[in-house]
Design goal:
By secondary structure, the protein is mainly α. Helix content is 79%, strand content 0%. The longest helix has 31 residues, at 4-34. The structure holds MU-OXO-diiron. The site of MU-OXO-diiron has 7 residues, from helix 1, helix 2 and helix 3.
């Protein structure tokens, strides 16, 4: 049985994952509108993944005797300066999500809730991967700069599923 405190924290995390999905959806739409079809494919996929992250927590909370609450969401940013600023924003967002995952793990340890701690370890690993992917994409964009051929190939590779090329 989840404590009320952990249930509330997990419900906050449901909101954060849902907002991540909305934010990446807005970025995907911006990229599609700008003609970056590969980047938009990547971001639409990323948005779907965030929805799955949210759903996993919804099921977990309900299975452990809590009540997962479906949140209302703030409207995400809809305009971005360029691709680099999109991925910089993703990195900053993921760092803040990692912090909130870490806070939940801290609470699990404090409450000696080993099941929830175990459940949250998947998110700990996932956050490491997401931060490192965003960093590697930013590094790649810094190398390319404003070179249009480089951006063309970057977009194509990202659309082909080669995110960290
Ligand atoms: Fe579900 Fe990107 O954190």
């Amino acid at each position: 049985m989840l404590s009320k405190t952990l249930e509330a924290k997990l419900n906050d995390q449901i909101e954060k994952e849902a907002y991540s999905s909305q934010l990446y959806l807005a970025m995907a739409s911006w990229a599609e509108m700008k003609g970056y079809s590969g980047v938009s494919t990547f971001l639409y996929g990323h948005s779907d993944e965030e929805r799955q992250h949210m759903l996993k927590i919804v099921h977990y909370v309900n299975e452990r005797g809590g009540h997962a609450i479906v949140p209302s969401l703030d409207k995400p940013d809809t305009n971005f300066n360029d691709l680099r600023s999109v991925f910089q924003r993703i990195l900053e967002h993921e760092v803040s999500v990692s912090q909130s995952i870490n806070d939940i793990v801290d609470l699990c340890l404090k409450e000696k809730d080993h099941s929830t701690n175990n459940f949250m370890q998947w998110y700990v690993s996932e956050q490491m991967e997401e931060e490192s992917l965003a960093k590697s994409i930013i590094d790649k964009l810094d190398l390319i700069g404003t070179d249009s051929t480089g951006l063309y190939f970057f977009d194509r590779e990202l659309g082909n599923g080669n995110a960290a090329v």
